[in-house]
């Protein structure tokens, strides 16, 4: 997976490649999907959600330009795979999942695998994790129709955020935001397809 799907393409960051090689993806997919765990495609994890393809996980991770001491926020825990990859690189990962059953299962899975540097919260990720802010990096693993302002505000100066943005039921643009004081530099990375960013109903 790492040699052909990642380093064989444009994933060159050593920390990302090492993390992708260490985290066992088959542990984060349902048993009936494990035979496809290392293929470069998303897989269903229940509740209408998916685990992203390995290349997308690696590309988004690499785009954050992470350092070991960074504090990272993830919106959309899913099965916990992306959080585990982040936790192999950085000291502190905070991750939020809106689907209760997925969030609880991911928390249990990550704890059992020894990821004591990951904190999991079940809830609406739109407002981020204010009491743990600011963050060096934020990664959103669900497609938003617009960029949540609270997430931008929770970036440190110099902090980076990757997020898929665009209309639901359509192709979105994966964007990278870098905070510079009170301004945000924005760059388009690639066209992507993601499950929708969901909110708690009022």
- Which fold does the CATH topology refer to? Rossmann fold
Number of helices in the DSSP assignment: 6
- If classified by CATH, what would the architecture be? 3-Layer(aba) Sandwich
Could you give the count of β-strands? 9
Major sheet attributes: 7 strands, mixed
User: What Rg do the Cα atoms give?
Assistant: 15 Å
What spatial form do the alpha-carbon principal axes imply? globular
Instruction: Name the CATH class.
Output: Alpha Beta
CATH superfamily: Vaccinia Virus protein VP39
Give me the secondary-structure category.
alpha/beta
User: How far is the first residue's CA from the last residue's CA?
Assistant: 42 Å
* Strand line-up in the sheet with most strands: 5-4-3-6-7-8-9
Taken in chain order, the helices and strands follow as HHEEHEHEHEEHEEE
What's the pLDDT, averaged over the residues? 92
Low-confidence stretches: none
Percent helix among the residues? Answer: 25-40%
Strand content: 25-35%
Tell me the domain tally: 1
What would you say about this model in short?
The protein has helices at 2-6, 14-22, 54-63, 81-89, 100-112, 149-153, and strands spanning 43-46, 49-51, 71-75, 92-97, 118-122, 135-140, 155-165, 172-180, 183-192.
């Amino acid at each position: 997976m790492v040699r052909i799907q990642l380093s064989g393409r444009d994933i060159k960051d050593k920390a990302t490649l090492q993390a992708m090689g260490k985290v066992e993806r088959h542990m984060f997919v349902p048993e009936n999907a494990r035979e496809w765990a290392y293929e470069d495609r998303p897989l269903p994890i229940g509740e209408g959600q998916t685990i992203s393809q390995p290349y997308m996980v690696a590309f988004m991770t690499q785009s954050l330009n992470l350092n070991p001491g960074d504090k990272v926020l993830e919106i959309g825990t899913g099965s916990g795979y992306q959080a585990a990859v982040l936790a192999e690189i950085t000291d502190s990962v905070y991750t939020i999942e809106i689907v209760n059953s997925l969030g609880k299962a991911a928390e249990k899975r990550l704890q059992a695998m020894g990821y004591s540097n990951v904190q999991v919260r079940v809830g609406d990720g739109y407002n981020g994790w204010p009491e743990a802010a600011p963050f060096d990096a934020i990664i959103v693993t669900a497609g938003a129709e617009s960029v949540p302002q609270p997430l931008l505000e929770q970036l440190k100066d110099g902090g980076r955020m990757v997020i898929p943005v665009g209309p639901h039921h359509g192709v979105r643009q994966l964007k990278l935001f870098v905070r510079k004081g009170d301004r945000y530099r924005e760059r388009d990375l690639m066209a992507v397809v993601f499950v929708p960013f969901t909110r708690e109903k009022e």
